[in-house]
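Whiteboard transcription, Tuesday session. T.W. wrote the structure tokens on the left side:
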């Protein structure tokens, strides 16, 4: 008999300069799920480390009740572990019972300041290595900095992308450690606007358009730098996915930088983080698999256990009709999908079908399939609501 709980772990890496809102972001991601009024009929979110959870919830309470922002965490590298625990286990028939999210917060100062010692330099390398399991990286553009540089945003953006790119290059030899390229490395880089509440008139397309107009060359240089790290660099999305993120609505005083009010109910994009972590790597693996020949070791490093995850999304084992398989080419990228029927079916899954599977899963108390299909619906809604642009390549 399998031991419970069985855990599936997903990793994300969050990069942003000091002051870009990373601590506020993670506090606002976790905090609302701990309120007495919070209700979710499918899962509960807990912090694996009780001390971390208490600190994050305290940060949230400070914003909610006292209009105070969390203290700045200079040079602090932190990985937060959250467990999404299902309300029921469906008699043990589901492939896993807990979805664990590892949230790696990389210190912004490390991309703008040189190491003060060899020991600190080694710590930076070790810290970066710890987040190499992440399929998804969030690269934060600070909304306040965009405001400060209004009309000449390219000055801030060039500095932001250049500092990060040069920081990667300084780590390159140590990270590669004699290897030509890395198989395991973040392959989906979402450029996200933090403090999006400062731009209430913007949707994600306005943000993408500003970056394209003001910083297209800088993003392209970042993409080429990341390509130097990864095996099969064509299986990479940098500057193709965009998101709006706002932890709360901040009411600022004209007398100083401290907020006079924080409305934590007005959040933007945070509810997409779990769906992105859980399903975007699966979607991207299917897209890339259909378009190009990718070494199996690279595929296995992206959305590890993808066939099992696809089966859970679909509600069980999948048998694809012979007529469908007959239409697949005998050679090339799509041919391999014949051996992974669940992936083949997910590749053709339409929104209406997802709603049907979700409704049936809820009726059957199949919490895992209900959660994953809800994540899929939430991702689609994020695109429709113009909070998220996901690459179609």
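and on the right, the sequence the group agreed on:
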């Amino acid at each position: 008999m399998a031991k419970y709980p069985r855990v599936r772990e997903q990793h994300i890496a969050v990069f942003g300069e000091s002051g870009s809102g990373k601590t506020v972001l993670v506090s606002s991601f976790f905090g609302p799920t701990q309120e007495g009024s919070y209700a979710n009929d499918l899962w509960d979110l807990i912090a694996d480390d009780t001390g971390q959870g208490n600190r994050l919830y305290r940060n949230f309470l400070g914003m909610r009740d006292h209009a105070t922002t969390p203290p700045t965490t200079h040079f602090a590298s932190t990985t937060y572990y959250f467990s999404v625990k299902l309300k029921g286990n469906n008699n043990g028939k589901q492939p896993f019972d807990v979805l664990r999210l590892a949230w790696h917060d990389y210190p912004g100062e490390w991309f703008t300041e040189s190491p003060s010692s060899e020991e600190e330099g080694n710590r930076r390398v070790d810290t970066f290595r710890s987040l190499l399991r992440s399929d998804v990286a969030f690269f934060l553009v600070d909304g306040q900095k965009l405001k400060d540089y209004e009309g000449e945003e390219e000055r801030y953006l060039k500095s932001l992308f250049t500092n990060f790119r040069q920081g990667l290059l300084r780590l390159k030899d140590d990270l590669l450690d004699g290897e030509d390229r890395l198989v395991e490395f973040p392959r989906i880089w979402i450029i996200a606007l933090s403090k999006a509440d400062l731009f209430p008139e913007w949707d994600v397309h306005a943000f993408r358009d500003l970056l394209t107009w003001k910083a297209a060359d800088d993003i392209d240089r970042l993409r080429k730098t990341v390509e130097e790290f990864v095996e099969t660099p064509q299986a990479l999305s940098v500057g193709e996915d965009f998101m709006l993120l706002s932890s709360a609505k901040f009411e600022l005083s004209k007398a100083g930088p401290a907020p006079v009010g924080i409305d934590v109910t007005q959040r933007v994009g945070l509810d997409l983080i779990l769906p992105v972590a859980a399903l975007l790597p699966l979607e991207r693996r299917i897209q890339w698999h259909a378009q190009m020949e990718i070494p199996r070791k690279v595929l296995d490093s992206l959305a590890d256990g993808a066939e099992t995850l696809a089966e859970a999304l679909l509600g069980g084992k999948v048998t694809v009709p012979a007529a469908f398989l007959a239409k697949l080419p005998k050679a090339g990228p799509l041919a391999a999908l014949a051996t992974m029927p669940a992936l083949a079916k997910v590749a053709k899954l339409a929104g209406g079908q997802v709603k049907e599977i979700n409704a049936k899963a809820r009726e059957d108390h199949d919490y895992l399939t209900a959660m994953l299909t809800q994540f899929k619906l939430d991702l689609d809604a994020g695109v429709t609501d113009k909070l998220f642009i996901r690459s179609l390549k």
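Someone added at the bottom: The first strand starts at residue 7 and ends at 15.
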